[in-house]
Amino acid sequence: MAQGTVQVTHTGTSRWRRRTGEYASLAAALEAAADGDVLTVAPGTYRENLVVQRAVTLRGPEGSPGSVRIAPVDGVPLTVRASAVVQDLHVEGQDAAAPALLVEEGAPELSDVRVVTRSAAGIEVRGGARPTVRRCTVDNPAGIGIAVLDGGGGVFEECEVVAAGQAGIAVRGGAHPRLERCRIHHASGSGLTATGENSALEAVGCEIYEVRGSGVQVTGRATAHLTDCDVHRTTADGVTLDTDAVLTLADCRIHDIPENAVDLRSRSVLTLTRTTVRQFGRNGLSVWDPGTRVDANQCEIFDSTGDYPAVWVSDGATAVLDSCRVHDVPDALFVLDRGSRADVVDSDLSQVRNTAVSVSDGATAQLDDCRIRDAATGAWFRDHGSGGTLNNCTVDGTQTGVIVTKGADPTIERCTVDSPAEAGFYVSAGGRGTFLNCRVRGSAGYGFHVIDGCRTTLKKCRTERCARGGYEFADGGPDAASGVGPDVEDCTSDESAGLRQPTPAPEPAVQTVSQTPGLLGAIPGQRNTEQEPLVAATQPETPTRTSKDVLGELDALVGLESVKREVRALTDMIEVGRRRQQAGLKAASVKRHLVFTGSPGTGKTTVARLYGEILASLGVLEKGHLVEVSRVDLVGEHIGSTAIRTQEAFDKARGGVLFIDEAYALSPEDSGRDFGKEAIDTLVKLMEDHRDAVVVIVAGYTAEMERFLSVNPGVASRFSRTITFSDYGPEELLRIVEQQAEEHEYRLGPGLAEALLKYFTAIPKGAAFGNGRTARQTFEAMVERHAGRVAQLDEPSTDDLTLLYEEDLPELP
């Protein structure tokens, strides 16, 4: 058989009619062939656009795979419109607007075909075609690997997409293929994607990996069913569902995913059975929006590589976990937002670094017959409207078993907490909750710890071997109404003194037993004697100076003339308003919250402290003390902890000034899912709810603070004015050095003042320039150099010990 020829074996109804012929081109051979004929193609390259319209067999020579190349210069190299058999061919395409191998009709069989192309699609199946494709490979770095469109279907067995410039396999327009033991990798879009109503994808024993996008994407009312499949090493989410998509995963493995292992939203529905999810950078399951639902049965989610909850349910979505295991994760289950719900049955949550179950913002969680082990917090119901039920659950080896705060109202029934380091059940800050037939054993702290006069109900509860006591009830102090507190009925303890009923305790002091504060250290209202305060600031109970005295100290500060005028104008407004009220007249409303802008070291913190003292002297604030915080004090590592930290800082500042330095860091330009927004939202609400209790001052660089206020209108509306702190000039920096010298009993020698002026004029004014801080650092450096010089004298005089000279000046930075 000659190179570049096609041998056609013509068949008929009887043996004697069989004959053969050779043709110089594939087109001529196809024209001569009839149904049932066999076309054997000799090795060579055929620059033809072939169309197979009869049920023939088209194949390359046996024992020479890849020796037949179908490679036209443009158009579709091979089109199949019949139930033909195509095997052992090498198809090459170059047309970006057309597929390399197009199947339009019939039920052809394609086997051992290799498609190497830079086309719109490597293999495209459309219309009523139902091919069987076996052991075929597609290498198409310019487009889709395999596209099944417009009602097409078929079965793909042991096929491989080795490269794709877009999706590896795309299904749309009502198509419905089945994949068996296929491999899809090195795609620049999703590995598998199905989109559009009536589109369906079934995959068994497949592997999707090394994908620059989502491993599996199902959208727009499409459905998919994956069994015994592997999805791993993607750059985006492992599995993405959106807009009424339906997906079933059975016996699948999703791992090594830098983003969410599975993300679904917009009324999508996911069913997982015996599926493992591991090594994910964000959420293992991320479930969003009303109508979106996950049902997981006998699944395992573990080994998170990021700092996000393993299961995230928000915006009204629902998640059901039945007989599942979640372990070795930062947080196990977070349920947020009104309408969101999680139902967990007969499941294990263990080796959780922070909180196993967190319920907030009005969400609901129900846990039945579950086991929580080795977590910082077993379950935390965080705020008003958040609730649900824990029924017949065990919590073992936690810092705190169950926390209820801020109006949350769960029902905890027949649950046992073993060996907590701090408390079995902890209720504070207006939390409620009903505890029925619950047990705490071996607590290193209290069994049940209820503070702030919370209206908690305890019935038929029992504590055993609790180091600090079985039950501790503490009143909330001056804000708690009389007669409030827990309702306790038929509760027992193994303590010899029996159960102590709730009694007012205006100054409760709680000391945790563990060496580290744990999560309880972050809850408002608890006094932890081991925890450092946010700022080392004195908090005088009553002002010791008049406003004139404090304004005198302000006037004595170097420079800051415009700042002094602004503060004095505010003070005058407040003072006159107070006097008008005393005279029975209306007083103008003065918003006391301020924005301080300017470079570091310009006196913003000092002025904030004096401003608080002035307001206290005028009776506007109760104490006038200053609490200084920054982003690190307000923003936690996971959802929920930020609100608690911000509340704690606000409570510390109650009656005084909360000074937030570098406040713009709470709203970075590339914020994404940054938790700084939670701090801002919490702060805005607290400023509204307690408008007369705390004055808030936000401070930072001028440009950054302008951006911060522009992107957070809710914050901007709550501040009355912005005060700008200008940089210090050389004369003002000299004056600061002179004050420092006078305070520390030094004197400036002849010529040093002039030298300092030149020094401060020449010093670089870049990002490292610290204004007043630079002046103080300069003085300290001079004192250090002076000490090195004078220490060499045997008997230094008083002048030697006090005079600073030009030679003591440090080098310019």
Record the SSE blueprint.
Layout: E1 6-10, E2 19-23, H1 26-32, E3 38-41, E4 44-46, E5 50-52, E6 57-59, E7 68-70, E8 78-80, E9 85-87, E10 90-93, E11 99-103, E12 109-111, E13 114-117, E14 121-125, E15 132-134, E16 137-140, E17 144-148, E18 155-157, E19 160-164, E20 169-172, E21 178-180, E22 183-187, E23 192-195, E24 200-204, E25 207-211, E26 216-219, E27 223-227, E28 230-234, E29 239-242, E30 246-250, E31 253-257, E32 262-264, E33 269-273, E34 276-280, E35 285-288, E36 293-297, E37 300-302, E38 309-314, E39 318-322, E40 325-329, E41 331-336, E42 341-345, E43 348-360, E44 364-368, E45 371-381, E46 387-391, E47 394-396, E48 400-405, E49 411-413, E50 416-418, E51 423-428, E52 434-436, E53 439-441, E54 446-450, E55 457-459, E56 462-464, E57 469-473, E58 487-489, E59 492-493, H2 547-556, H3 561-582, E60 594-598, H4 604-617, E61 626-629, H5 631-634, H6 641-652, E62 657-660, H7 676-689, E63 695-700, H8 702-711, H9 713-716, E64 721-725, H10 730-743, E65 747-748, H11 752-762, H12 772-790, H13 798-802, E66 803-804
Parallel strand pairs: 3-6, 4-7, 5-8, 6-9, 7-10, 8-11, 9-12, 10-13, 11-14, 12-15, 13-16, 14-17, 15-18, 16-19, 17-20, 18-21, 19-22, 20-23, 21-24, 22-25, 23-26, 24-27, 25-28, 26-29, 27-30, 28-31, 29-32, 30-33, 31-34, 32-35, 33-36, 34-37, 35-38, 36-39, 37-40, 38-41, 39-42, 40-43, 41-43, 42-44, ...
Antiparallel strand pairs: 1-2, 1-3
